[in-house]
């Protein structure tokens, strides 16, 4: 019996989490009402005990009237104030934690997912998935000739193209300096290539003017498909090599991992020094 009462009291006193400040106030008033009833009951019981012991210094009737008039409102007001202060503190901590979690999963420049959030999204995926890796062509020359502010503008505009084509609810991430990734679930080869091509065309058609001069931007992309349960590394490796081939084949194009040539055992793909892809940067 004592354990049941103990659990009930703890449940009543636990504030939990709140969705808004208004929810805090409603919870505080509900809890204060329970406390007022509980305090009034204890007060009445205490009076009867004192009467039984012959210790009550005044008549029981007037004493109960005073207890009824004072105990519930006073205990209610005190409880509302106390619970509101604590509840609002809990709510503010929850909001701060949520903002921190959002910041820790967001790339500050592009507003897209960062690498950590993208990997977590992939780990939660199930079934057939497709990965699109995109790289801004000749990005280094933009930074070298127009400055890093121009490079930032190019990244932001490219991210805008991605969200315009896919929507803000899709798994889109900036995984490196000028590199982006898209995770598709249950789309199939044809649809994945259509989406990749739509992104490429959107970036190519983008009208960007920096310091009064027009700047042409393009992206190359590699696409690979697989089953999410098999892990990220294999899927990434195929998309990465397809992206490498797209770069080596002239840029501003899409290559599917199925188009990769079969390499002899022990052979390696030559690096022309122009791709700038860090293999293993996302290895799980």
UniProtKB/TrEMBL annotation:
Assigned EC number: 2.7.7.65
SUPFAM superfamilies: Nucleotide cyclase
Pfam families found in the cross-reference section: GGDEF (PF00990)
GO molecular function, one term: diguanylate cyclase activity
Domain of life: Bacteria
Coiled coil location: none
PROSITE patterns: GGDEF
Reaction equation(s) it catalyzes: 2 GTP = 3',3'-c-di-GMP + 2 diphosphate
GO biological-process terms attached to the record: cell adhesion involved in single-species biofilm formation; negative regulation of bacterial-type flagellum-dependent cell motility
SMART domains assigned to the protein according to its UniProt record, in alphabetical order: GGDEF
GO cellular component: plasma membrane
Main enzyme class: transferase
Keyword Magnesium: no
InterPro entries per record: Diguanylate_Cyclase, GGDEF_dom, Nucleotide_cyclase, Rev_trsase/Diguanyl_cyclase
Protein name: diguanylate cyclase
